[in-house]
Amino acid sequence: MPSFILGRLVSLILSLIAASIVIFLVLEVVPGDPAQFMLGLNATPEAVAALRTALGLDGPLLERYFTWVLGLLHGDFGISYTYKVPVAKLIGDRIWISLPLALFALALSTLIAFPVGILAAVKRNSPTDVGIMGATQVGLAVPNFWFAMLLVLLFSITLRWFSAGGFPGWEDPVLALKALTLPAVALALPQASILARVMRSSLLDTLGEDYIRSARAKGLSQGQTLWRHALRNALIPVLTIIGLQFSFLLAGAIIIENVFFLPGLGRLVFQGITSRDLIVVKSVVMLLVFAVILVTFLVDITYALVDPRLRRAVR
Amino acid sequence: MALLEIKDLQLSIGKFPILREIDLSVDAGEILGVIGESGSGKSMTALSIMQLLPFGATTSGSIKLDGREVLGLPDVEMRKIRGGTVGMVFQEPMTALNPVKTIGDQVAETAMVHGGLGRRAALEVARQTLERVELPTSRFPLDRYPHELSGGQRQRVVTAMAIAMRPKLLIADEPTTALDVTTQAAILRLLQKLVDEDGMGLLFITHDLGVIAGLADKVSIMRQGEVVEAGPTVALFRNLRHPYSKALFQASSHVPPRIPPAVAGGTPVLSVDNVVREYPLPRRGLFEKRKVLRAVDGVSLRIEKGENVGLVGESGCGKSTLARAIMALEPTQGGRIAIAGEPIDPKKGASFATRRQLQVVFQDPYGSFNPRHRVDRLVSEPFHLLGSAAPTGTERDKRIARALEEVGLSAADADKYVHEFSGGQRQRIAIARALIIEPSLIILDEAVSALDVSVRAQVLDLLADLSDRLQLSYLFISHDLAVVRSITDRVLVMRAGKIVEEGATEEVFRAPRHPYTQELLAATPNLEGALAKREAAGA
Lengths: 315, 539
Description:
- The complex is a heterodimer of chains A (315) and B (539).
- Chain A is an all-alpha fold.
- Chain A has helices at 2-29, 34-39, 45-55, 61-73, 87-122, 127-141, 144-158, 173-207, 210-217, 222-252, 254-259, 265-274, 278-306.
- In chain A, 77% of the residues lie in helices and 0% in strands.
- The longest helix of chain A is centred in the N-terminal third of the chain and has 36 residues, at 87-122.
- With 539 residues, chain B is an alpha/beta fold.
- Chain B contains 19 helices and 20 strands.
- In chain B, helix 9 packs across helix 15.
- The A-B interface holds A 3, 6-7, 10, 209-211, 213-222, 224, 228-229, 232-233, 306-309, 312-315 and B 50, 52, 75, 79-84, 87-88, 90, 92, 95-101, 109-110, 113-114, 145, 147, 158, 161-162, 282-286.
């Protein structure tokens, strides 16, 4: 097991290095010069050149890459071209919305999907199963921004239980969580639908396995067989999906953030792109990549905890 | 009163009748063998006793266990019987154990469910039970996982799960079918020992007459959901009355009539010289050097035109790897392979012209066809090896029709899909596919192993006939020594990547020289031998 974790760690670091190179190079070749953009169309070439030097945009490629990476390692992400404040601060403010929101939505989605998926699998082909599968189909089909607006109409405007948008900050955690509830529900709905379907099919596969029959032949009841033998084996594909969903929720909440006026990472990167604030884009993308790779790492470790056969698989 | 008494058992799933008027009985300390081909209802009979039938099954009649009626018993009561009074061992040891639980926990679970024991006490029961099935904790600690054990060892764990509570009846459904002959012999000895020690009744289900003849006290032969014949083992086999039983008996020891080939010499169809195939093993530690597994270790063999050569060995000995190397599906790390005199490039593989000399038929008649293609397309697939010379239009249809007729199917079958055919017919289609470009060598990799005995006898006849008429050569790979004996001229015995013995088939079988060949032959179930032995013991 320790050598398994070490192996995964090495692959994590290698992936990070590869990702940083790709992100750096892609943003080098995309059109749009930040200095030109900041100074406007009427700026003289001299002024643009001077600003480029000031922003550190004209050194050799390799040197700029290492400066950037070393900065990242020290928590120094550079200064935003448009906001004129450290990018680290911009991200720091927003991650305290995006990260809790993602975790909240993921927790909701898991809490809904597990019981629902298990119920559907156990009662396969019954009206319950058909009903659940139909509901998840709807959950997948409904666009989440539209569902978000319905939530606002019902819970904010009619019932007045939640505010319709904005974020009050974490001084009062109850208020903060309340502000994140509707967005989290809107985000969780499609995710829960996917997860419930994966849970159902994975559990159905597992319930058809020979060792389930062996467990029944030992004298276990159907419930005991499910809890002691089937669930843990059914978990692997479900964990994969949970890992993917977390990465998606962290950055993919952009539309929902807009619906609820939440200043999260998604909005930051969107604004960064429209104003050619490449250093913001670069940093946020790098951060998201880091999050994805970290989650993958954690999912891998969880696989090994769940399934002893994977513990020695060092590649 | 018998321990298990089945009277007039009827079973149907939906509208389909599966079992009709089944009568069986097992006494304490007695072994009942149930024989039947696939679909005969023998597994369903076993599952009826356990009341673990598939959804939608309805039963009538009577199953009495120790005097108590089982049919219609509520699940709460049945759970006390399953694993308590009756234990069951299934066919597939590789999948019958939960991969994420230790063997100790899985055996202990039976004791926890039935004995009301705590985990610690249950693990002690598990330790003792594993000891009884000859998996001592000193070599197989309780915290082992199933994937760390071999197939035979896993089957012992499954057996331990079933006998942990010392049940009165053990049901074993083809427990040794997936195992090698030497492992099979060991498991059969173990079951016999458990019956003798505990006075347990054993209901042993198998398709293998040789196995049953050596083990069972009495036998019931099943066919299409009915018991066609039953009686004490030796008396029954010596005096079979039902035509089906007779046919089954004959098919199991069937030897297809063959004309010994006139080996002409000249260029051999296949020559393999000192071939090596290695696999890198997964790294143990991050910085350790990868170890290499030598699956085929310096093998040489030669097949002349018209000659049938057998390759026997147990699972993992490298026989299928060797076959894949010959087909140039895998690179080799040493040696030389030539087909009809044309050497195969170890990196680039064989040319089309070389490959058309060689075709293959695999074991699984269900998995080796694309289910969405019609038979004509499946059978004509090898034509692409002919390039621009491939026949088209009516000529193509004629060749397809001829190939199908050659294997005993009709030209009209070309428009059907494979799911419309039985296992034996599918294997005929696979042979037609191999024949269509008139190769000089066909590799048969366990090609009849998945077939029922009567179908197997027919396919063997077909193979023998084709070989005689078309001067075909076979490389016949199998773990089944009886089949190899019936159809090959020469045989090679493989073990751990090496050929340990080689010679004319009859000589090797009559007087094996290598100890491993002797061991293999001794472990092979032999219907006639077992019956003779029991008669001698009884007399």
